[in-house]
Each structure stands twice: as C-alpha cells, then as structure tokens.
Amino acid sequence: MHQYPQQERQDPDHERQDPHHEHQGPDLPRPACPPYVGQPAAPPGRSRRVMWISAVVALALLISGGFAAWKLDWFSGNGEAVSFGKTPPPAAAPAAPDADKKSPGAAQPPAKPSGDPDVLMPSGPKSDFKQTTKLDDGTIIAKTRLAGAKSGFEGDVWVWAPKEYDDPKYAKSAFPVLIALPGGNGFPANYWSDRSLGLQKAVSEGVQAGTSLPFVVIMPVLNPDNKYYYDGSDIPGQQKMGTWIAEDVPDFTRANFRTYKSRDGWAFMGSSSGAFVGMKTLLQHPDKFKAVIASGGEIVPDSPLWKGHQAEMDANNPEKLARKLIDDNGPEVFINFQVGTRESGKDRMLKFQQQYGTGPVKTTIHDIQNGEHNGWHYVRGMKESSLEWISKVLKGPKPEAG
User: Fold this and answer.
1) How far is the CA of 30 from the CAs of 5, 36, 37, 299, in angstroms?
2) Lower CB density within 10 Å: C or N end of the chain?
3) How many helices (H) does the chain have, and how many strands (E)?
4) CA-to-CA distance for 251 and 242, rounded, in angstroms?
5) What pLDDT band is residue 76 in, cutting at 50, 70 and 90?
6) pLDDT digits (tens, 9 = 90+) for 100-114
7) Taking a C-beta distance cutoff of 8 angstroms, is the pair 162, 205 a contact?
8) Concatenated DSSP letters for 217-285?
9) For residues 250 and 87, what is the distance between their CA atoms, to the nearest angstrom?
10) pLDDT tops 70 at residue 200
11) Residue 170 phi/psi, 5° resolution?
12) Is it the case that residue 53 has pLDDT exceeding 60?
C-alpha cells in the first residue's frame, strides 16, 4: 500500500523502484560558511599579490565551469529544437504553364500514406520539441509540454523515434507506439527518458536483431504532483489522469507521428505503478490498445484519494475490468508480466493469471533471473523476451516496394 506523502507503492522491494533512487534525509540548516555568515574582513595589510592570485583562480574556475557547461549541454545539442519525420518531398510533377509565377518558397505537399487504409499521417498541430538526450546511434530523445485538451491537465512528455522513422522507404508507413510509464512518483520526470536505463537502445538493438519492431516511444509524466499517487485514473475531485493517459497522450502522438488508426499499433509498457496504469488502461479501453508489458506486480488500485468513491475505484480495478471483458467475450488483449526472481509480486501475477487469464485475456509471465525491482532489470527482461513477445502481437511498419 502507499505511504504518503512522496512515497511509491510499497512492498519490501519497492523503495528500489526508481532507478535513480537515493535516500534523502530531512533538510538540514545550511552551515555558516563565509562569506555569508561571520566571515572576518581581510586584514588591512593583505598583499596585492594574494588578491591577484585569488582573482586568477576565480577566473579559471569560471572559465572551466563555462567550458563544462558548453561541452555537456551546448555541444551535445541539448535544448535545441527537434523535428521528427524528415520525409523527402514527393517526386516532382511536370511543370504547369504558370509554374514560373509560383513562389519559389512554396511548401511541398506532405507525403501521402501507403495503400494500407490503417495508416494515419500526422494530423497536427505539431508540438515544439527540445532535445534532452542524444543516443550513440544519433537518435534523439526530446521533450515538449502538452496541455491536455480532454483532461485539462498540463504536463511534460518525452518522445523518441527509431532511425527507421526517418528512412525514406518508410515515409508513407505508420509505426507502432509504445507508451512507457514510470513507477515511483512519475513526476516531474519520466525516468524512461534517461538513456542510462537503455530502453531505446534495447528497441534499436532488437530491430537490428529482428526481435523487435521499431517502436515510437512516448513517455508522459504519470502523476500531476509528487504528493499522491492517482492510479492513472479520473478520481472524483482530482486531476483527470486517466483521461490524460488514455486520451490526451494518444491524441498528441497522432498529431505528431505516423501511427496506425487501429489498436493493432498501440501498446503500453511500465514498471511498478506504471505497470498497473498500463494494464488498467488496456483493460478499460481494449478498442484503443492491444497489449502491455507490465513489470513489478501491481494489480489493484490503492490510492487513498479513492476514499468515499468505491464505485469509481471498482471501475478502475483490473480484476473487475478483466472479468467484464471475459463476460463480454472480447476483444482480445495481451498482458506480458515481468518479475525479477529477487523481488516479490509474482504471487499476485499468478493469481491474476489463474483467475482472469482466460478467453480474451491472454497472459504470460517472464521471470528475470536475479532481477530486482528496478528499471535496468526490466529492460533486461524486455531484451530477453518481452520485446519479441509484444512485437509479434502488434503491427509493424511496411517499407515501400522498390
């Protein structure tokens, strides 16, 4: 169960959920350090030589600090504008009689989709993306600010597209979308946007090995603050985080990327609390999403904000949603649980699989040997099995012939 404030869902392993978790003690008073508190004045006879040495040292530190900032940020391109889908203009048509009257700077019409009626070209308006990270293969993780038209919530979203997305032979094809949800507070950042976890690299390597589709990865914040956990749901009286995840984030993705109209190109992955939200949203909206990789063993809602709202909480309970889906005979959804052998939670997965993994609810469990409750081990599990599993469930891009 949760511990508040500023705590993640708790079981004996969960304090390690955030891959960047550090123990932070209470705020301590700042020490009385010169020149702010109690620093004596320089003695009257202080030599100019000492003063010059101090000035030179200060200048050197300033220059070296500025160089470090330039090397780590400016030189890397972080903060620069980014665009995705640099598709070539269509083949030139025969010049019209009045072609010389046209503006030389006239915009080229966008590429038309392939013959697949399921392909949806970006609908716009385009968001303003800024680079946050560049990977070794040259691909970019970028961030933008999204004001959710349906939820009313405004938050940050990180995005990444594989190299194939800018390949001219895929210019008219859609790409599958993987919405990656973090555990922990899930605010103000989404830790899947940190290259150190290797999620994007795992996808790229899987594409090269033929074991993964080239997913577009979308990484929104999960909660509206770091005080409470909102179960990725529209809890009465609170920010509509269920609408944010299920409606606004997909709408934003369709506005900026080539996607599939059908659910065959849409899935979630998440860890711990993010796994719960991904699975819950999949079961709530099986007409919009098809699969989830759920790591860490969270099954039922448990936010304290549900108090007094039992009916609404039940409407966001994966167990009850799975039962309804079974009773309604579909559509089929696919849940791949991941669990480390050195964490708890597998008992909850097995119980869910035994009770609800039937009919249209397809479940598998992947054990990560010596895996713990953290993002690095969950990415390892994806490389071992889960990326290939989900790639067989979803629809991939189709290159143009020729």
Assistant:
1) 24, 11, 10, 43
2) C
3) 10, 12
4) 14
5) low
6) 444 444 444 556 666
7) no
8) EEEE-SSSSSS---TTSB-TTS-BHHHIIIIIHHHHHHHHS-EESSGGGEEEEEETHHHHHHHHHHHH-
9) 22
10) yes
11) -105, 10
12) no
Q: How is residue 108 written in tokens?
A: 């080229």
Question: pLDDT tens, 312-340?
Answer: 999 999 999 999 999 999 999 999 999 99
Kind of pairing between the strands at 361-368 and 333-340: parallel
Calculate helix-pair angle for 346-356, 318-327, nearest 10 degrees: 20
φ, ψ (nearest 5 deg) of residue 293: -100, 110
The span from the CA of 192 to the CA of 374, in Å, is 11
Q: 4: which residues sit within 8 A by CB, 6+ positions away?
A: 227, 228, 304
| The residue to which tokens 């019409």 are assigned | 109
**273-284 helix and 318-327 helix, angle to the nearest 10 degrees:** 30
Q: Provide φ and ψ at 133, rounded to 5°.
A: -155, 145
Q: For residue range 80-93, what is the model confidence (pLDDT) as tens digits?
A: 999 998 644 444 44
Asked whether the predicted pLDDT for residue 166 surpasses 60, the reply is: yes
Give phi and psi for 131, each to the nearest 5. -65, 135
Task: List all residues 6 or more positions away from 193 whose beta carbon is below 8 Å from its beta carbon.
Answer: 132, 133, 141, 143, 158, 160, 219
254 near 120, Cβ under 8 Å?
Answer: yes
Note whether 115 and 123 are within 8 A (CB). no
Question: Which of 299-319 are b and which e, b meaning 16 or more Cβ less than 10 Å from the residue's Cβ?
Answer: bebbbebbeebeeebebbbbb
Mean residue pLDDT of the chain comes to 82
> Which pair of structure tokens corresponds to residue 90?
């269509």
Q: What are the structure tokens assigned to 256, written together? A: 């900026």
- How many CA within 13 A on the CB side of residue 248? 24
Identity at 348, one-letter amino acid code = R
d(CA 345, CA 14): 10
Render pLDDT for 213-239 as a digit per residue (tens, 0 to 9). Answer: 999 999 999 999 999 999 999 999 999
Spell out the SS3 assignment of 185-200: CCCCCCHHHCHHHCHH
3 state SS of 140: strand
Q: How confident is the model at residue 16 (pLDDT cuts 50, 70, 90)?
A: very low
Closest CA to 171 of 401, 400, 402: 400
CA–CA dist 308, 311 (Å, integer): 9
